[in-house]
Amino acid sequence: MPDKDMALLQLKELVEEVTNCTKCPLAQSRTHVVFGEGNLHARLMFVGEGPGKDEDLQGRPFVGRAGQLLDAMLEAIDIKRAEVYITNIVKCRPPNNRVPAPAEARACLPYLRNQVAIVKPKIIVCLGATAAKYIIDPNFKITQQRGQWIERKGYYIIATFHPAAILRDPSKKKPAWEDFILIKEKYLAEG
Ligand code: SF4
After folding, report:
1. From the alpha carbon of 18, which atom of ligand 1 is closest?
2. Whose CA is nearest to atom 7 of ligand 1?
3. Ligand 1, atom 3: nearest CA belongs to which residue?
4. Is the dihedral of CA 106, 62, 159, 190 positive or negative?
5. Ligand 1 center–CA 184 separation, angstroms
6. Other C-beta atoms lying within 10 Å of the C-beta of residue 44
7. Alpha carbon distance 146, 166 (integer Å)
8. What is the pTM for the complete model shown?
9. DSSP secondary structure string, 80-107?
């Protein structure tokens, strides 16, 4: 079977598994599982914290105000949303958009690992402190450590502010923009 078809099949099986998942308490309050979406062979993957209200209602990642800002930032560096893959640490919405509990994140992380193994991105961007903590380092300090490349297991990984944090605090816009320039440079270099 060609690699492309194999990846599609693996992803379909994973979607089915995640859609029926009840491994953590977030299953009880969700409207939809938000698996993630995008280019199955994306070179660039974005990982956020978890679905918000709009995402939970629609079953799609980054579709609310923060998602619109992410789309605009991608457009500004001339990358189409359809080129990349977008997902979250947890696939179900934490009530009132609270930070996922460690047990919830741990229960859900194997799904993210499988997504990464199937999509095989070259670059992984952690959107916000929660993603950076679970992907890069449990003690990650987003304000101090964002915008720095890490090479691990063949992936280039970087963290920047979550778009929702930029909306809450516009002073984060400039450093986030600087991070997106770095992401664009790496994307072109790894093309
Ligand atoms: Fe399963 Fe993840 Fe949803 Fe928890 S957040 S129920 S582990 S899919």
Report:
1. 8
2. 108
3. 92
4. positive
5. 32
6. 24
7. 14
8. 0.97
9. -GGGSEEEESSSSPPGGGPPPPHHHHHH
Q: Are strands 37-38 and 85-88 parallel, antiparallel or unpaired?
A: antiparallel
Tracing tokens 């440079």 back to the chain, one arrives at: 185
Which residues does residue 37 pair with via DSSP β-bridges, in sequence order?
86
Residue type, 157: I
Q: Which two tokens stand for residue 15?
A: 């979607």
Q: 130-163: per-residue pLDDT in tens?
A: 999 999 999 999 999 999 999 999 999 999 999 9
Contact present, 153 and 128 (Cβ < 8 Å): no
Q: Which two tokens stand for residue 168?
A: 């809450």
Quick one: tokens of 52? 């918000």
- Residue 142 has what pLDDT? 98
Q: How far apart are CA 70 and CA 163, in angstroms?
A: 6
Q: Ligand 1 mean position to 172 CA, how many Å?
A: 30
Rounded-to-integer distance, Cα 55 and Cα 51, Å: 5
Å from CA of 49 to ligand 1 middle: 13
Atom of ligand 1 nearest to the CA of 50: 5
